[in-house]
What we know:
By secondary structure, the protein is an all-alpha fold.
Amino acid sequence: MVTRKAAGKARRALASGSRAPTLHRARPANSIVAANSPAIARGAPAAAATDAETIATRITDAIVEHRLLPGTRLGEESLGEIFGVSRTKVREALFIVARYKLITWEPSKSACVAQPSVQEARDVFETRRVLEAATARRLAGHAGPAQLRLLHQQIEREAKLVRSGDVKSGTAYGARVFGDFHRLIADLAGNAVLAAFVREISARTSLVEVYYGTTMPSACSHDEHVEVLAAIERGDAEAAALLMIGHFVHIEKSVMLRDSAPGVVDLREALRA
């Protein structure tokens, strides 16, 4: 049975993501992040981010929310100026982000936001189907009134935003809103290790979507979430798992995977006379 503590944690996590994120104009892809880059800074004082974990989280959020585009170079000196820390601390943070495959980082070169290949993208979706099916199946087996209430609140939030046109799939805010449903299920399922894997693969899925683009209508995402919740609510674990698998099959099909992704533009080269 999901504990009251787990439900409370999930409730706080849902509440913290209920407001629209502050969006900033993305930096040109393949450019070094400038010291005053809004893509990472988000208006917070540099002194607030003094440990590697905090810096890694800020970089990860900027990637997931599409403020740092695939191919963007992350210069250690620039990042050090943004966060007010040494290059050693920056390297520690980049090492953390690199573990989740969100950036590529080779010796003697600047780290770059990853540009996933078509095969990697397909592997990411296959893995996510497995993990998400497991969380849906697990939660459907023991979801109680408190857990179901949280899920219904999230579904109602989605419905309101879809009706108003304030949220769309493939956008930074859409990734956050629709992602909250999946993160909530993972948190409520009662397996912290599984929930951590879901969060990691969710970030990589978001990177794939922003790199290749998606045609998934927001109403479709919401409707499929409603079906998953209905299966969880009636305790049909296998149906919940199958619906979740189908949901990610549809998402993968909506992503415009192609062997030659759009080229990364170097503005300095493009504008040179």
